[in-house]
Amino acid sequence: MARYLIVRLGLGLVTIAGVVLLTFVLQFSLPGDPARRIAGPRASPEVLATVRANLHLDDPVASQLVTYVSDVAQGDLGVSYIRRRPVIDLVKERLPATAVLAFGGLLVEVLLGGGLGLWDGLRRRRSRVLAAGNVVLLSIPTYSLGFLLLVVFAYRLDLLPLGGGTSLEELILPALTLGLFGVPYYAAVVSESTRTALASPYMRTAVAKGLPRRVILRRHVLRNCLSPVITLAGLDVAIYLSGVVFVESVFAWPGIGQLQEQAYNELDRPLLMGTVIIAAVVVVAFNLIADVVRVLVDPRARVEEAG
Amino acid sequence: MTPLLEVEAVSVRYDGFEAVTGASLTVEEGRTMAIVGESGSGKTSLALAVARLLPPGGEVVSGSVRVDGVDVTALRGADLRRARGRLVGYLAQDSMAALNPVLPAGLQVAEVFETRDGTRRREARHRAVELLGQVGIQRAGEVAAMYPHELSGGMRQRVMIAMALALRSRLLIADEPTTALDVTVQAEILALAAALQADHGVTFLWITHDMGVVAEVADTVAVMYGGRIAEQGPAGEVFGSPAHPYTQALLETVRGGAEAPPKAPFATIAGAPPAGVIPPGCPFHPRCAHAFEPCPEVVPAMVDTGPGHRAACHLLGVGR
Amino acid sequence: MTTPIVELDGVTKRFGRVTAVDDVSLALYAGRTLGVVGESGCGKSTTARLIVGLERPSAGGLRFNGTPYGRSGRALRAARRAIGMIFQDPYESIDSRFTVGDVVAEPLDTNGVRRSERAGRVRELLDAVGMGGIDPGAYPAQFSGGQRQRIGIARALALDPELVVCDEPTSALDVSVQAQILNLLLDLQRDRGVGLLVISHDLHVVRRMSDEVAVMYAGMVVERGPAEAVTGAPRHPYTQALLDAIPGTSPAERRLRDRTRAAAGIASAAAAGCPYSTRCPLATDVCRAEKPPLEGGEHRVACHHADASAA
Q1: Which of A32, A197, A177, A230 minimizes the C-alpha distance to A118?
Q2: What is the ipTM of this complex?
Q3: Quick one: which of C94, A270, C247, A291 has its CA closest to B257?
Q4: Which of B152, B183, B190, B196 to mutate to test the interface with C (most CBs of C within 10 A)?
Q5: Which single residue of A20, A274, B15, C90 could bond A87 by disulfide (Cβ 3.0 to 4.6 Å)?
Q6: Each residue of C84-94: pLDDT tens digit?
């Protein structure tokens, strides 16, 4: 187990290093001269030269890479061109809002998707209504779904606010948009696990023991659905926490995704690179966490992973 | 003495296919009846019918099953649930699959006490560990916390037996519980079953394909072929003077082997057991060395050949 | 003495930290059968896979007609052509998407047998396994387990092997069908003079089929000798235990019911000594400290207390 974790951690660090390297390379493909962005359009050549020297822009690429990597390793993601503040501070400010949205979305997909999946899995035949609903949800782009919900519930019915803040009322629509998108996956996974559990020989043992239906459901069905749900949820939390650009932008949700979108539009190179690196770290971290939890929940995984 | 298990003219069907046809047998309390058969003989379907565990699509279409005087086939809903395990317990062949992989072994025994007897959790755990010790598991406390995949096949089968003891099943169906085990472990489990029968008076319906296991465990034997019982009677009678050509041939493959010189040919039965379509008339006739005119056309009736010993073969009618 | 077809000399196979086969030496001869018995996990199947070249040894050497193989290209290919293998499960080991003819001809195709000879060869092979009447264009799905095993045997015979390795050839089959397959193997050996390696957990089968028997435990050969000697007068307590565990042949000869109630514990590995010492009723301090070597003339045994159980 410990060895497995160390290997996974190592792989995670390699992934992050890869992302750092990639962002470093990609920054050269972004349009615009960083020195001019900072110094302004009317800056004199002398000022520009000073800024260039401060940013080490004239150093050889190799030495720039060393500086960049050592900065990132120390948690220094640079200073935003536009906002003139450290990127890391900007991200920290936005993190709570993104976390709230992420867990809101997760709650929707786990409860709604899991519930529908369980209902479907316990039926003799799969529900056609659910299958059709899943296809519809899967084929609507997140962007359109967000607008649809916004138009119907906020604009037409005027039941919920249009967004722009982080109140509970304002959370409902973006969380729903995020969660609805994941519902088909959770419904499918839980339905399948339920069917597998119900058809398994250990279910026959449980029935033969004369266990009450609620014990069979809770202990022998739901327990066996946990492992795939945790894997899915781990991935989702990671993706959501790293900022869901579309949803945050549709609902003007002040999270990391919105920050990233702004950085992109403003060609704010350090901010864009910073949010990408943070996203990589979050994804790696939550995958690792999901793995650990899954191993704790499913004793079989312990053997597989150790081997 | 009234029998604990009475199966009367039971037929089992899976959408369109008849797996068991008109099977009747009885088992006295505290005794073991072995049902021997090959694949497609209907032995497992009959066992599942008795345990009310037939998979969806399978049903008892005629006949009755009585356990301790209760008509098991008529039980529904809550009555059925309460009767499960108490009347009939079930030991499966594949103990790895039959135990829930994500729950500790001890819990799977303890939950019987918790849900069936309303025992408190701590007390239930304690009694589960006690039972694990009773079925010959050393360091039972430690084993109770282990998961099925961490246990050997023999240990898992002991956990299954402990479960049956927790349920205090009147009738225990042993569906090839030793087939997947090594011979030395099989010997241990057979000895354990015999000891439990002596101590607790457990009644067994033991399903197997292995005449050696039958010889070890059975008081009475029913030989099944093609969904029908071909022969049944006291074990000594069936082994000593087998009446059905199929039983004779099966025994030949076992006993002929014990004294034969190395590299001498094995006694064989031609062909293979029916899969899917069961031949008309006597189901064994295509493979039978003694088949004659009526065999392919008429299903032979059960004929008494001795005290409690019956067989279904046209040859038996010819002689009298 | 003639050169063995295949000889194993101190072969060891490790998978990570697990030693599956531990210093095993065996020899297989034309026209003769070596039976290997042991329980699950004893290393008998890995031994079979080493012999047919599906695994490479971690230590020790294999020789095919005197030439080392097991690692290098040409010798290994020659050995593979000359060694056929029959698997336990005739459902898994035969691909249902191919016709029976294609399954049987597979070794012919990969070894460049001419197209014009192929059909005739397939007929011959199917004939040899008692399936002469069937259409080679049929698919395996329509055949029973016993018939599928015959098809598997025909495939193993395709390149006229000198040795056929049979890994539990009948344990997936119905009782009434097993004898047919064993008789077929006996016939093939008599008619073609092939050497056989029969691996089985069933001592009955091994005794009837073999000239020589090797008993394996925890990756080691613990006893080896003429079939009748090993099964009739075992010298190792483990062999004795295996024989004692065989069920009787009639209710009058029950052998297992009255055994003392054996307990099952969490398996603990023997650190240095004899691997059987953790289960052996005869184990003493020397057994737990020293691994006994396989010793003796024709009938060898690896036990500090050899022959004690026979007394």
Answers
A1: A197
A2: 0.86
A3: C247
A4: B183
A5: A274
A6: 999 888 888 88
